[in-house]
Task: structure prediction
Amino acid sequence: MPHPSPPLRLRAAVFDAYGTLLDVHAAVARHAARLGEAAAPVSALWRSKQLEWSWMLSATGAYEPFWSLTDRALGHALAVHGIADTGLRADLLAAYRELDAYPDAAPMLAALRGRGLGTAILSNGSPEMLQAAVEAGGLALLLDDVLSVDPLRCFKPDRRVYALATARFACQPHEIAFVSSNAWDAYGAMRFGFRTFWVNRVGAPVEYWLDETATILRGLDALPAALA
Result:
C-alpha cells in the first residue's frame, strides 16, 4: 500500500508591504481633518493611480522609482479634487514614508519566526521608502529581508520580481508562502508557483479566481493557523 506524500515543507513566508503589512490609507488618515470630505476619495485615488501607473510603465518597458510614482499619484489625486495646498501635499507625502503597520502584522510575524520560517517583504516600493516604513511600523526586527523591485527596474506582477524571493531563500516557489492583500498580486504570485494567501480584510468580491487558487484570509492573524 503506497504511503501518503508528506506535506510540502515551507521555507519562508514572503509578504507584500503596501496594503498587506502597512496601511496605505494611514497617511491621509493623519491629515483627514485638513482634507475634509475629500479625505477618503483622495486616498483611494492616490492608491489606484500609484498602482495603475506602475502597471503601465511595466507594460511599456519603462520604469520610474515607486517613490516618484507615489509623489506623482498624490499630485494627481489632489488636483482632481481641486486641492492646491503645497504644505498639505508635503505633509501627506512625508506621512507615506511612515505608514502604520496593521495591528496584527507584528504578532503574526513573531509567530512565524518562532516556527523557524524565514520572513521577508517583496515590494514594488523603492528601497528608501520601504526601509523608513518598516522601521516606523516596528517590523524591522521581525523580517529577514526587505526585497525591492528597484534593481530589476520593473514592477509586480512581472515574474522576475517573484523570483527575487526564491533567490533570496535559495528554494523552489512551492516552498514559499506568499501573502498579499492585493488580488492582482496574489494572482501573479500564484502563477509563479507560490503557495498563495489573499488577505481580504473587507470581504471584497473574489477576483482572479482566487477562491480556487489561493487561501483567503480575513486578516493576518489567521495566517499562522492556515500554515499549520
